[in-house]
Structure formats: structure tokens, C-alpha cells
């Protein structure tokens, strides 16, 4: 069993007298900054002057500055701009302002794992990775709860890197739920694999196929949307709370029987696992990382085309219309969930 840490194992007072610089004020950035501030930690925020994050951080009452200024002023520098931007921000703004004894932190290990960022030996480097989107990290914290998190130490120059990392995660609420110790390679490779094969890639394609089969068979797109997209959250909430057996306990016996007889027909285990192994191999040997880095260097032609195609898919079009008429319509704009 891997090491698990909880609030009793974390001393947030370690952060007393330290300044945490949050670089980037997007989904994760706003959650980390707000939660840490609410936990009594001194926080500064870096953004692009005049950009959306800068304006939002100022509206939330933070001292906002450039990334270079924040890196110079911060004792703990949490890099929360998107993966594809991190290396450039690091080289231009952060690296020149790193001095011995500082800590560089990440919420995802991509740039360390694939050596896009190679920090100097005299600083701590750690991972503080909530296993959930930033809006959930913030929402759970406000509710007095927390999102399970991962912790890893890549470099321990001060001898206190793990304690600092645990204190940081406690400050964003992760210790309320539990902190699992891992390493940068494991976090990065399993995270990419999970996103691509199950959580995002696999689930989205499964929903799209289900929607298309139903509508091509003559069922209304509204009914198809509710059945194969909207209800997924209800099922996942049950799995999250009580596991698959608990979910099966809550659904009808008819639905559970259908799970056993039809699930393997849709996703034949050996064929699906063989394709998953191919995806995992691309992640492990760096093929995926290389392709994604090159995609960004070339202006994202494939990425942008796929995003536009998905946005115009009938399941997205009908979904937008349905949500406008539902009581939960305010949830549609995630950027309103900062506080």
C-alpha cells in the first residue's frame, strides 16, 4: 500500500513567513490561490498584464504581477499555466529568478517527466496534484471538504521538500480527503493514460457513439442526450461514493443485467486492452509528448479542427439548448465558479 497522508500528518505552519507565488490564474490557479489565502497563507498571483486571469485575480483581491516578478518574490513557486506554456514561462521568467532554497511546484508532472523543464539542483521540486478540476477543488474546500491529492518530491535540496509539499496540499484542502505519495513519472504517465483512454478520450467517444446510434435509429436527439450524456454524471457520482458494486446496488437489476451482457459486447476486453496498451506505450516512450509539443509549435491545426468539429456536433448543439431550459443552467459557465 502506498503512503497516505492526512491533516494530522501536515503542518501548515511550515508556510508561515513564506510567500506562495501562483503562476497562472485559470481553473487550478484560482482554486489554489483562493484556498491557500483562506488557509492563512500569503499568496501572490502572476498573470499576463491585462489578460483574463490578471483581471480575475485582481477582482478577487490578490496582488497581481508578472511571472518574473512573482518568481522573484515567491518562496514557493507553483507553476499552473497550461502544460504547453510552462517551458517557455519557466525559461523566460522563472529560471532567472530562482535562488537556492526556493521551491518549484507543479500540479502535473508533464514538463519534468519529459525534461522540458530541468530545474537547478539547489531548489526543491515537488508535485501537489489535486485529483479533480480546479472548480471542484475550490467548491469542495468552501464546503469544508477536500479533493484527494497526490504528492511527490523530485528534488529535496532543503531536506524539507516533502513537509513543504504536504503543508501546501493541506492549504488547498487536499489533506481533508487524503494525500497519496507517488513520483513524477507515475503521476504523469497514469494521468495521461487515464485522460486519453477512459476519462476524456474514451468516455467522450463512447457518448458520441451512443448518441449517434440512437439518433440514427430515429430517436429524438433530446432523449438521446439525456440517456447517454446527462445521466453519466448520476452514475459516476454513485461510483465515486460507493464503487461499482455500490452503483450496481443503486440501479435497477435490469440495468445491472444489461451491464453484464452488453458492456463486453461494446468494449471487448482483450481488444480494448490491446489498444490501451498501444496508447500507454506512446505515453511511456514520449511519442505522445513529442506530438503534442510539435502540435503547439505548428499552431495547433489538428487540435483546433477537432475542437471545432466537436463543438458543432449535434450532441453538443442539442445539449446547449437543453441546458438553457433546465434549472441547472447556471452551471453551464464554469468561469463563474471562482468563489
Structure description:
By secondary structure, the chain is of the alpha/beta class. The chain has 15 helices and nine strands. Helix 8 (184-199) packs parallel to helix 9 and helix 8 (184-199) crosses helix 12. The two termini are 36 Å apart.
Keyword list:
globular; nine-stranded mixed β-sheet; alpha/beta; 12% strand
Number of helices: 15
Overall pLDDT score: 95
Unreliable stretches (pLDDT < 50, length at least 5) are none
For the record, give the distance between the C-alpha atoms at the N and C termini, rounded to a whole number: 36 Å
H/E element string? EEHEHEHEHEHEHEHEHHHHHHHH
Strand tally: 9
Main sheet properties: 9 strands, mixed
Helical/strand content category: alpha/beta
Global outline: globular
The main sheet orders its strands as: 1-9-8-7-6-5-2-3-4
The percentage of residues in β strands lies in: 5-15%
Draw up the topology in text.
Elements: E1 4-5, E2 19-23, H1 27-38, E3 42-46, H2 52-59, E4 64-65, H3 67-73, E5 76-79, H4 83-94, E6 103-106, H5 110-113, E7 124-130, H6 134-142, E8 149-155, H7 161-171, E9 179-181, H8 184-199, H9 201-216, H10 221-250, H11 253-266, H12 269-284, H13 287-297, H14 301-311, H15 314-324
Short summary:
By secondary structure, the protein is of the alpha/beta class. Helices cover 55% and strands 12% of the residues. Strand 2 (19-23), helix 1 and strand 3 (42-46) form a beta-alpha-beta unit.
